[in-house]
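Q: what does this look like with S-adenosylmethionine bound?
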Amino acid sequence: MASLNIRSAYLGAKDQMEPLKEEVDGIIDIHNQLILSSAPAMEAFWALNIWQDPIVLAIDSINDGARKLKALQRNWCLYSYQLHRRAKLIQEKLPHVSAKPLIFPCSPPSSQLGSWTLLDQNQILASAQCSSPYLNGEVLFKEDKKGPPSRAYLKLYEALTRMRQFPQPGEFCIDAGGSPGGWAWAIQKLGARVLSVDRSSLDPKIQALPNVEYRKGDAFALQPSDFDQVDWLFSDVICYPEKLFDWVSSWVDSRKCKNFICTIKFQGTPDYGYAKKFLEIERSQVAHLYHNKHELTWMHTVK
Ligand SMILES: C[S@@+](CC[C@H](N)C(=O)[O-])C[C@H]1O[C@@H](n2cnc3c(N)ncnc32)[C@H](O)[C@@H]1O
């Protein structure tokens, strides 16, 4: 049976399955957002959650399914693509796992979280070792509906939480492509100073905030030689990955900036391979965050 050959599984974002399919080797089957593979688990930029070494459990009842999952470990997250009612009844017999939105700034959850699904009425596919500590890779924050001018700040929240580092009071940050000001809002709320550079204006409410400075123009014109020291360089500029890479490389080489978070946007016929060049920069992470659209996020800290 094909299910016995499953050696890894990849959960992708609903609208970003194509690049994930390009990345994953040995695809056996795809169930909505879950890709099953016969190859060992590999890094995949576009996966929200990677299921390592999943096993198939034969079950003869709902109770039996719950008992077998509990015997493996405590915390489980259901990914349900079929047989929803049966799957839900099994999940309800497992220990409760909190789905409460995070309150930023915070640390990622520390407890191990496994994932499971029903392959059919009598077979569970379960992985006790998943790459994401969040339920199906969904990183939910308590949202602020009044302060920020857009929801873009959520991807910055997610990247900072993943890095386990945050701009500190008094630190100096550059926010490239900052309009209308969601990231600037989040940065100044942490007490840091932010220079936002964009061809478009900031929302006047954001521009009026203390510690926010706005400069109109091309963010790529900002050069390391213009600054003594920068604590964080953020970019959410809409541009080709190669343009961003050349610009951030000059900053990395200059050693003038300590931390970076930049979104790598893909448009037209994208060369997803470009993401690997960012990853080759030492102490980097590249990931498709839950709050990313057709983009990846590069995170880098100089230590
Ligand atoms: C996705 S939006 C940024 C959203 C922002 N991070 C926020 O939180 O509100 C991308 C921005 O990049 C800006 N942009 C594109 N090319 C630029 C360039 N060369 N220099 C500066 N800004 C640029 C656009 O004007 C746009 O405002």
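The mean pLDDT is 96. The longest helix spans residues 241-254.
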